[in-house]
Specification:
The protein is an alpha/beta fold. The protein has two domains: 5-219 and 391-404, Rossmann fold, CATH 3.40.50; 243-384, Glycogen Phosphorylase B (Rossmann fold), CATH 3.40.50. It contains 15 helices and 13 strands. The chain has helices at residues 18-25, 49-55, 72-84, 89-110, 129-137, 151-163, 176-188, 197-205, 257-265, 286-289, 302-311, 326-333, 362-374, 376-384, 392-404, and strands at 5-10, 29-34, 68-70, 119-124, 141-145, 191-194, 213-215, 243-248, 272-277, 294-298, 314-317, 338-340, 354-356. The strands form two sheets. The chain has a seven-stranded parallel sheet, sandwiched between helices. Strand 1, helix 1 (18-25) and strand 2 form a beta-alpha-beta unit. Helix 4 runs parallel beside helix 5 and helix 9 crosses helix 13 (362-374). The longest helix is centred in the first third of the chain and has 22 residues, at 89-110.
Length: 405
């Protein structure tokens, strides 16, 4: 039986175009429909300022020979229009999603597709409704890529902000129309791909049909250490060579940052240093902003983040709700053990490549850090067992299998 051909509709460069690249490797990509695309040596890369810089990132050499339908000129015009209207926040997100769906749906409706070949249309959540409507009119199979744990996640984020008021209020919740559109996407989807069991659990709690859900972990393909790189740990940590703890990602309440900070306040007797790399999306209490063992780096370039992975001893990923958590697989690529929660993608096998927290609390994080600070040899053993959960080829096989089921 001939493998179905995929039409991948992608707003943005999510996961470095992992889905279309995976399908292209399988020779199953019919087309990539995307908002912006900038092949090398084109006028699009030569635009001045931030627009040209961002467009320069909107390309993948692996898709150089693929059929790509893009709306770059329209996007530039609309971005200027939205800016002139001072759109921001959810209003801008919704307007951008609406524009892309309209353009992608028109492309699907007019596309010439070989009648003998079955077709799968893939789109990410919150920008798929019009796309799937168009796909259904042509009898195409639809696969929704769920980028987060859905409606229940947004409710949980609001609850957590109430629980930790010192760290600022909750971010504005999505409008009801945003979630209503998402629920219709779920109804129109034949298959809903989530990246973790946690996302699947929250979608089931929100009433999404259980039979549609499939768990496919995200692949890992990024900068890797040089072949001669070997992670080394001292026989004992000291003030001269402290335990170097790393947190990567947006510093938010839902990602467990308040609990990590409180854990550090319980470790003043130990030689422990914490680096926080990423956007600071909470109000940081003064006692932690000036804490001598905590360094706030703010947003970093990708190469700077890779350097943080290289120089750390352990990654702490204490998320209270996360669709997956790419920092985990990036850390694994750098042979970096992880202390992780269970409310995200399951990358950690306990006491093989890291530790799983039975509960996400300041006490449990502090206890885990005390354990490894007292036994650096455990980190050496775990580093030797670090392996990313899947590569792009395994990811493609998994997607093809769930779409065919």
């Amino acid at each position: 039986m001939t493998e179905p051909r995929w039409i991948c509709c992608q707003l943005g460069a999510r996961e470095h175009y992992a889905v279309p690249r995976a399908m292209e490797r399988r020779r199953a990509l019919r087309a990539l429909i995307t908002d912006a695309w900038a092949r090398p040596a084109t006028w699009r890369r030569m635009l001045p300022g931030q627009i040209g810089q961002k467009l320069g990132e909107r390309y993948s050499a692996e898709l150089a020979h693929a059929s790509v339908i893009d709306f770059t000129a329209s996007l530039i015009w609309h971005e200027l229009l939205w800016r002139s209207r001072s759109l921001a926040g959810w209003s801008l997100v919704i307007e951008r999603n609406r524009w892309f769906q309209h353009m992608a749906a028109r492309a699907i409706a007019s596309m010439v597709v070989e009648p003998a070949l079955s077709t799968v249309v893939f789109a990410h959540a919150y920008s798929a409704r019009e796309v799937f409507r168009a796909a259904k009119t042509r009898g195409f199979r639809t696969v929704l890529g769920q980028i987060d744990p859905g409606a229940e996640h947004f409710r949980l984020v609001g609850d957590l902000a109430i629980r930790y008021p010192e760290y600022g209020g909750a971010p504005p919740p999505p409008p009801a129309s945003y979630l209503a559109g998402w629920r219709e996407e779920c109804d129109l989807a034949d298959v809903i791909v989530v990246n973790s069991e946690w996302s699947g659990a929250l979608l089931r709690r929100a009433g999404v049909a259980v039979g549609k859900l499939r768990v496919v972990p995200l692949p890992y393909e990024t900068e890797s250490p040089a072949p001669e790189f070997r992670r080394a740990y001292p026989a004992a940590f000291s003030q001269d060579r402290p335990l170097r703890v790393l947190y990567v990602g947006s510093a938010t309440v839902s990602k467990g940052v308040p609990l990590l900070l409180e854990a550090m306040s319980q470790l003043n007797d130990l030689p422990v240093r914490l680096d926080i790399a990423g956007d600071i999306a909470v109000t940081v209490p003064q006692r932690f902003r000036e804490h001598p063992s905590i360094t706030w780096h703010g947003p970093l370039t990708r190469s700077e983040v890779m350097e943080k992975y290289r120089n750390a001893d352990v990654l702490v990923f204490p998320s209270l709700s996360d669709g997956f958590g790419m920092a985990q697989v990036e850390a694994q690529g750098w042979q970096l053990p992880i202390i992780a929660s269970r409310w995200c993608g399951q990358v950690v096998t306990p006491h093989v490549n890291g530790m799983l927290l039975d509960e996400v609390s300041a006490a449990s994080i502090a206890a885990s850090l005390r354990t490894i600070a007292a036994d650096p040899s455990a980190l050496s053993r775990w580093a030797a067992q670090c392996r990313p959960p899947s590569n792009i080829d395994e990811f493609g096989r998994a997607l093809a299998a769930v779409a065919a089921a």
